[in-house]
């Protein structure tokens, strides 16, 4: 929905002196013109509207007064003073009804419905719209053209109401019908087109959404007051569609348009925060949200400042800042209470309850608080918020051991969600699954989980980028865990593994078509937001603007459907060819492993994930200290700590598995275990994979590609020893293509890697934990992000990343993982060697030489790395770090 314009004052300014027209008819025409201007430039007409109300009162003219009150109310709405706007509109409705002025009543009711929507009172807004239609039908003397315009305006308000209440299909049908019939004026055509674009983006129809967004922006030539929000909507859609550079450019354009119109940037920052949250760029999201709160409070926009503060609370929850989430939620709830906006207060209260639930500080009182908020939101017609509220209430009831209350509340969430959009239905499925589990009906709970994950797979497959798909999988995280608990109780390793594979690394399974835009053009101006909140965000278009049909054809032609499909133990054992697979899962904080050996499969309980994290964090800290030791004593202390943690992790993760000491393993981690240095926990060769299905795919690629292609060696700038490393490797691979110094730019590297059998990149790496697709490698012409490499379709058959943190892929909710390694594997690379931590630059050369000698002699990456690690001098701090941190991924 296109938001109102922002101004600095708390009340309408008095306009400059002007002459009122003479005669009643001229005054009525004048006030009608003021209303048309108020839609686009409310500040400019506020003073005139005030004068018109005063004049109408002196003249005792009810028609003129009713129309003037409506104009004045609209200027108050533009200032976010909805209480004053409603008071004026209440008076306009009373006067028009008293004097049977049906056309004035209809117009006032439509405006009041909009104000009630702003206040979160959708049920009251719906009644006003119904009454407005009835009033139009009674206004027999109304001009037919005016009647048609008013009908269109009421139907548009109905569509907006449906959209805000979560009835998205109904809203889409209304928008399409209105636009096809052409009954709207230009400004409302912009709003309908803009809102239809947002709806289409919500359900993944990005190509059509951007066509409507373009049309909305073009129409703003005739309605310039709506240009800034229209550009902003297009920016948001472009980001959601994966066209990040395009979206960031539009965000900059929206900021300029707001500034040119003299409108504070509070709303711009709010929308930018939403876009950054979609990309999981949480520091940028938090910065933008804080800027929104500051700007809106400074400009007097207390209503939208409350909404921005609620966004801050949600961002804090995502980052694990429970205290911050509670503080901002409580502040937003208190502000909304003073503003008499019950819907926003209930939303804020629920975020506060979620924060307390996360902190394990809820009691029976919070059950009642959440249920009352849910009931109010349901009665107000806010489907999305009501479903979420009942789900929160049910969770709290379970946490305080009130299963009956929990079941009733969760079932209500499921009932409400049944006809909602897909993400609302998923929340409903989760609620019912929780209820069935609480009622001790595991089969029914499992069926809800299956149905929900099927819906999620369809939704995820419509998303155009790997990171959006990974984030979408988070909506099914709890469904996956609940289902895993049910199958684990059955004790079948095969069923447990099949269920784990259902939710494992699904976002990686589709190989996206490579962008047709040259790398130089994609990277031009890619550091967006030079003066705004996006300053320093490096972006690149990952989804070129092609038609939906063409994009679908290209995706279908690529490998994988995005829906995990586990082929069973027999096919897995054939691919493993004597290796042992260990796939880890997590249920209620406990770790479990499925061990698939050549003749048997077993379920093994490993203990609490928290115990592993307790050892992992100090291990990584010790390795970081050893990579850059500050004196002999510090190095010895760090070495002792690292060896202690490794021994404990071996006891926690490897000893219970009962595998042979020198067996070759394929390990599929889960959650935080992606950050474990697995190579140093097992004495035999070991490879990691995002999923068993994915490892089978890389195994097939390895068998098909053996011996083809060339070797490419790349040395990035400002890295001690990089050039020496590459020169040494040239002796191992005579005839290799070497790119160093100025020749190692992004365009040259991408072109060289396109048909490489083996690539070695010795470059500085900059990890980004909140969104690893924005991690980067430093090349001769600047940093190139994982996102850019993935979008360019870079996929050498085998890849060695000899840079810090290059293997530190990040786990996402829903058993997804993103980073350098997973992005390369997703695009078709069959094997990667990378480090999960900082590595000593010069000391890594010996390990790399041994690794490449093994590869030259025909060993797969896992065995070549194992042999190379066996020759490392672990007595030095640098050698020990290299022995610990490098791991192989995939089967090549």
UniProtKB/TrEMBL annotation:
- Return the SMART domains for the record: TPR
Can you name this protein? CHAT domain-containing protein
Note the InterPro entries from the entry.
Answer: CHAT_dom (IPR024983), TPR-like_helical_dom_sf (IPR011990), TPR_rpt (IPR019734)
What's the source species for this entry?
Cellulomonas terrae
Q: Which residues form the CHAT domain?
A: 648-876
Q: Which domain of life is it from?
A: Bacteria
């Amino acid at each position: 929905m296109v938001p109102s314009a922002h101004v600095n004052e708390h009340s309408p300014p008095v306009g400059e002196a002007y002459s009122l027209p003479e005669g009643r008819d001229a005054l009525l025409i004048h006030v009608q013109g003021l209303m048309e201007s108020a839609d686009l430039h409310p500040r400019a007409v506020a003073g005139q509207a005030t004068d018109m109300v005063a004049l109408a009162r002196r003249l005792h003219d009810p028609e003129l007064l009713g129309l003037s009150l409506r104009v004045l109310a609209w200027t108050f709405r533009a200032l976010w003073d909805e209480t004053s706007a409603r008071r004026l509109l209440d008076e306009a409705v009373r006067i028009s009804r008293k004097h049977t002025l049906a056309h004035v009543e209809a117009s006032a009711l439509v405006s009041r419905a909009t104000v009630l929507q702003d206040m979160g009172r959708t049920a009251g807004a719906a009644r006003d719209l119904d009454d407005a239609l009835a009033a139009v039908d009674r206004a027999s003397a109304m001009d037919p053209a005016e009647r048609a315009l008013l009908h269109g305006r009421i139907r548009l308000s109905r569509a907006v109401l449906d959209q805000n209440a979560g009835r998205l299909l109904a809203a889409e049908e209304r928008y399409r019908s209105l636009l096809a019939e052409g009954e709207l004026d230009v400004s409302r055509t912009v709003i309908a087109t803009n809102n239809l674009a947002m709806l289409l983006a919500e359900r993944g129809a990005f190509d059509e959404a951007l066509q409507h967004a373009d049309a909305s922006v073009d129409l703003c030539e005739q309605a310039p007051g709506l240009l800034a929000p229209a550009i902003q909507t297009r920016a948001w859609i472009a980001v959601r569609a994966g066209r990040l550079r395009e979206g960031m450019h539009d965000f900059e354009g929206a900021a300029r348009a707001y500034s040119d119109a003299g409108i504070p940037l509070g709303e711009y920052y709010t929308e930018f925060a939403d876009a950054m949250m979609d990309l999981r760029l949480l520091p940028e999201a938090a910065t933008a949200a804080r800027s929104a709160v500051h700007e809106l409070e400074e400009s007097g926009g207390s209503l939208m400042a409350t909404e921005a503060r609620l966004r801050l609370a949600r961002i804090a929850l995502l980052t694990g800042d429970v205290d911050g989430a509670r503080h901002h939620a409580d502040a937003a709830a208190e502000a909304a209470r003073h503003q008499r906006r019950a819907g926003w207060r209930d939303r804020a209260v629920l975020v506060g309850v979620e924060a307390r639930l996360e902190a394990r500080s809820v009691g029976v009182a919070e059950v009642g608080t959440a249920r009352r908020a849910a009931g109010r939101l349901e009665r107000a017609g806010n489907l999305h918020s009501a479903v979420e509220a009942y789900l929160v209430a049910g969770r709290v009831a379970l946490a305080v051991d009130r299963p009956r209350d929990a079941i009733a509340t969760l079932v209500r969430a499921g009932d409400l969600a049944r006809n909602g959009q897909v993400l609302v239905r998923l929340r409903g499925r989760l609620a019912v699954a929780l209820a069935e589990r609480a009622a001790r009906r595991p089969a029914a709970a499992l069926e809800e989980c299956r149905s929900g994950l099927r819906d999620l797979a369809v939704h995820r497959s419509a998303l155009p980028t790997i990171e959006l798909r990974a984030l979408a999988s988070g909506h099914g995280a709890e469904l996956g865990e609940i289902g895993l608990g049910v199958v684990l109780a059955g004790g079948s390793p095969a069923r447990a593994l099949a269920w784990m594979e259902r939710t494992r690394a699904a976002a990686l399974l589709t190989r996206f078509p490579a962008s047709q835009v040259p790398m130089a053009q994609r990277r031009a101006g890619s550091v967006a937001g030079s003066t705004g909140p996006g300053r320093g965000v490096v972006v690149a278009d990952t989804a070129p603007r092609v038609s939906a049909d063409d994009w679908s054809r290209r995706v279908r032609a690529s490998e994988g459907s995005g829906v995990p499909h586990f082929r069973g133990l027999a096919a897995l054992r054939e691919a493993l060819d004597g290796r042992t697979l260990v796939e880890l899962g997590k249920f209620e904080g406990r770790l479990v492993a499925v061990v698939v050996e050549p003749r048997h499969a077993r379920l093994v309980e490993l203990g609490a994930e928290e115990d592993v994290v307790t050892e992992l964090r100090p291990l990584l800290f010790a390795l970081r200290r050893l990579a850059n030791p500050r004196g002999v004593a510090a190095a010895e202390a760090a070495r002792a700590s690292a060896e202690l943690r490794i021994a404990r992790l071996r006891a926690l993760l490897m000893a219970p598995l009962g595998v042979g000491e020198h067996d070759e393993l394929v390990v599929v981690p889960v959650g935080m275990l992606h950050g474990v240095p697995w190579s140093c926990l097992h004495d035999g060769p070991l490879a990691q994979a995002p999923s068993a299905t994915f490892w089978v795919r890389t195994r097939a690629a390895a068998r098909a590609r053996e011996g083809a292609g060339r070797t490419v060696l790349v040395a990035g700038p400002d890295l001690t020893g990089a050039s020496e490393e590459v020169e040494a490797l040239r002796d191992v691979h005579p005839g290799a293509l070497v790119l160093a110094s100025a020749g190692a730019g992004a365009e040259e590297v991408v072109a060289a890697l396109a048909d490489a059998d083996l690539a070695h990149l010795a470059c500085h790496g900059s990890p980004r934990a909140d969104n690893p697709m924005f991690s980067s490698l430093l090349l001769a012409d600047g940093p190139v992000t994982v996102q850019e490499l993935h979008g360019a379709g870079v996929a050498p058959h085998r890849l060695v990343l000899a840079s810090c943190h290059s293997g530190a892929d990040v786990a996402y909710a829903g058993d997804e993982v993103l980073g350098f390694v997973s992005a390369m594997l997703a695009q078709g690379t069959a094997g990667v060697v990378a480090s999960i931590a900082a590595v000593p630059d010069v000391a890594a050369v010996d390990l790399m030489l041994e690794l490449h000698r093994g590869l030259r002699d025909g060993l797969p990456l896992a065995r070549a790395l194992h042999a190379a690690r066996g020759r490392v001098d672990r007595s030095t701090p640098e050698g020990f770090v290299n022995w610990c941190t490098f791991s192989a991924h995939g089967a090549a």
